[in-house]
Design a protein that fits this description.
- By secondary structure, this protein is α/β, with parallel strands linked by helices.
- The protein has 2 domains: 2-202, Ribonuclease H-like superfamily/Ribonuclease H (Nucleotidyltransferase, domain 5, 2-Layer Sandwich), CATH 3.30.420.10; 293-397, no CATH class.
- The chain contains 19 helices and 9 strands.
- Strands 3-2-1-4-5 form a 5-stranded mixed β-sheet, with helices on both faces. Strands 6-7 form a two-stranded antiparallel sheet.
- A hairpin with a 5-residue loop joins β2 (30-38) and β3 (44-47).
- α2 (22-28) packs across α4 and α4 (74-82) crosses α5 (87-93).
- The longest helix has 25 residues, at 208-232.
- The protein is elongated.
- It starts with a strand and ends with a helix.
Amino acid sequence: MNRLYIDIETYNAKTDLRTQGLYRYAEDAEIMLVGYAVNDGPVKVWTVVEESLPGPLQIAIRDADEYQIVAHNAAFERTVFNQRKDGPFRRLADNPNWHCTMAQALLHGLPGSLQSLSEIFKLPYDEAKDKEGHKLVLLFCKPLSDGTRATRKTHPTEWEKFKEYCQKDVEAERALYKKMPMWNCIPFERDVYEVDRKINDRGFLVDVELAEAAVKILAKEKQSRDNKVWESTGGSITAATQRDKLLEHLLDAHGISLPDMANSTLTRRLEDPDTPPAVKELISLRLESAGTAPKKYSALLKSVSSDGRLRGTLQYCGASRTGRWTGKIFQPQNLPRPALPADEIETGIKAVKADVADLLYESVTPILSSALRGVIIAPKGKKLVVADLSSIEGRVLQ
């Protein structure tokens, strides 16, 4: 089978790939460059906005069944291509014969970074990922600090280097494809990788109304909590998240020395009957501020796609030693276990959406932490079925 090695460079003025995730980023991404090579042929770079579709790519699209498409972090290229509703990019995305060299590396306990892999396998300079490329990506792939955009016309010298960077990525991924081990790339793992792709492509529907209401009310509660900290410390601390200042205040004002601000440490001190009420109040405010719920609701809203689904939350072989999935963005595999009964959570969700939760609860953080799983909802006409495998590792090992 022929192989098409490919790498793209994109621009996005609206969305940050690192904080908002691939699928949200792909909705607004503009493809600038496509680096490609067929088999062992020369690497070429197609400037999309200036040049017509190159012949080798036309052939690969036309004869898709005869080509395997190889890319490093292939999910990026395939997802960006998939957002194009028609034309050559969409047809490339629909090709079932994708091979990801990053997944190949992770499957064998290797790092996923193209630069790290290039160093590990001692690729020659002309095949190694350009270490200066990061600066070029910052220059051309996102708006400049003043809101303008760098282009071939504004930065012609840097643009040529940017094209070389794209070319070297293709050279590096082709070399790594040949050098990296393949013994774990068995049909079963290929099937697992395909399941991973389908899960990430489908995503899950989220209760955007709940998330928006939660972010709003949590912001109000944070401000109220910070005001209490400011009052309790005589204005020396403005927020419960100021760890070092809080430790210093507890020692100076109350003679209490804490080794850290870990939840277990604070909980023990809170349960100590000899702890002064003023200290208990500060500790309680600190514990409330340390919850993960506010960050998760915000992360969800930033990354949700335009159709209300959150995608790309699983990383194939993210755990290097075990090969298990790890979570990304919203971290759906690491949601807090509800501490409240289901009926109370349901009542709390209704109160949050109606913006009256602060009238029912002294603090909304516990209810929103317990309600976090409820932000994943079933589409209309569907239902969610939840299942878990008890002690699955031990059972497999038997």
